[in-house]
Design a protein that fits this description.
single chain; 378 residues; alpha/beta; Rossmann fold; five-stranded parallel beta sheet; 43% helix
């Protein structure tokens, strides 16, 4: 019997959402290559199902919202609500997770997707694996939360070693050309052309690795839902602090200060520790992720810190997940920086997915206790 999720997709009631960075033009072009691989995977699945693919299965935000045109969204809030409506009616979400400066909007979108029990795939073309200094055998690609609770992460780490191989220099007289390479336009142009063609070929290869996984997701969507949310129930008066997972000393100290203040106000407080060296010494990354996730999902109110260039992707993921479950979310942001892109939408504090996924923005950490009290009374 066909899964209801698959039936809705076949009957055009849902689409696959492609989540990627909106603010870098090269990333937008790269996302179109990923989009092609996703569409190819869907076509392969429909062929196996012996069903015609008579609709376009992918929602591509940059193109399909018209947000950079005069006929697109009028406000940032329109952009947010448009995205949220789509996230509530998805077949699956495929996200580009290239880093190390991850897009916090993608994190929030993935959090909502997991909250709505949407199958998810993350795709990484980085050559990075992150190690803990206390236990180097513990590694993660994105954040332990995403590594554990996304349906699958497709990593193309071996791409980078395939660029400079001996055949890149075939038919070039290295002894003659290399000594004058700096002044030889013909040598540089030839090498550049071959290098460019190699990059294009490898990029296509990398995204073709996504194709069979998308096919499998279409045929077996439930395999790509990792989190059983029915086991978590939020408790009144409980507060969870997601201060970057405790990666930096200032985050650990801030979490402890806020915890003391909230305890004095009568709240039951937990805070994320998945990067804290004291916890890493005795646990796996999966256990660390589970502890933070359980504490967050069992809280009435979640406080997140946005005092970095981007809200860390694990924090933004938790934010979307908790907000998608109708928990109260406070954003602590002490900076004075606004940004705007496209200009017609005007300035905004933080990414719109962050900004409009909060019940309240706190500009000084001493305001946290009163803000929590105010939200809990509402």
């Amino acid at each position: 019997m066909e899964d209801k999720c698959l039936k809705d997709f076949i009957n055009r009631k849902s689409v696959i959402y492609l989540a990627y960075r909106l603010f870098n033009f090269a990333d937008k072009v790269d996302a179109m290559k990923l989009e092609k691989a996703v569409v190819d995977g869907v076509q392969d699945a429909f062929k196996e199902l012996d069903k015609p693919l008579d609709f376009y299965p992918v929602f591509f935000p940059y193109r399909d919202t018209l947000q950079h045109s005069n006929i697109g969204a009028i406000t940032w809030e329109d952009v947010f609500h448009g995205d949220l409506n789509r996230l509530q009616n998805l077949f699956a979400s495929v996200a580009s997770l290239n880093g190390p400066s991850f897009d916090d909007g993608i994190g929030v979108e993935l959090g909502y997707a997991v909250a709505y029990q949407v199958p998810t795939i993350g795709v990484i073309n980085d050559a990075l694996v992150y190690h803990y200094s206390s236990r180097e055998e513990l590694t993660h690609l994105v954040d332990p939360l995403l590594d554990t609770y996304l349906g699958v992460i497709v990593s193309n780490m071996d791409l980078h070693g395939k660029v400079f191989t001996p055949d890149l220099f075939e038919d070039l007289d290295m002894r003659k050309e290399v000594p004058k390479a700096i002044r030889s336009f013909s040598f540089i142009d030839t090498l550049r052309s071959r290098f460019w063609n190699r990059i294009e070929k490898l990029t296509e290869e990398a995204y073709q690795n996504v194709r069979p996984i998308v096919k499998d997701l279409v045929l077996h969507p439930q395999k790509y839902i990792k989190l059983n949310l029915s086991q978590y129930n939020s408790s009144e008066g409980r507060v969870h602090l997601e201060i970057g997972g405790g990666k930096y000393q200032w985050q650990r100290e801030l979490a402890e200060d806020l915890s003391d203040e909230l305890n004095k106000a009568g709240f039951d407080v937990t805070f994320s520790k998945r990067f804290n060296p004291e916890n890493i010494a005795s646990a796996t990354t999966k256990v660390l992720a589970e502890r933070d996730l359980r504490n967050a999902l069992e809280a009435e109110t979640v406080v997140v810190c946005g005092d970095e260039a981007n809200v860390p992707i694990g924090t933004s993921f938790m934010m979307g997940l908790c907000k998608g479950r109708k928990q109260k979310v406070l954003l602590y942001y002490s900076g004075n920086e606004y940004w705007s892109e496209p200009p017609m939408l005007g300035p905004i504090i933080r990414n719109p997915m962050i900004r409009f996924s909060t019940d309240k923005i706190i500009r000084a950490y001493r305001e946290v206790s009163e803000a929590v009290k105010s939200l809990n009374r509402s």
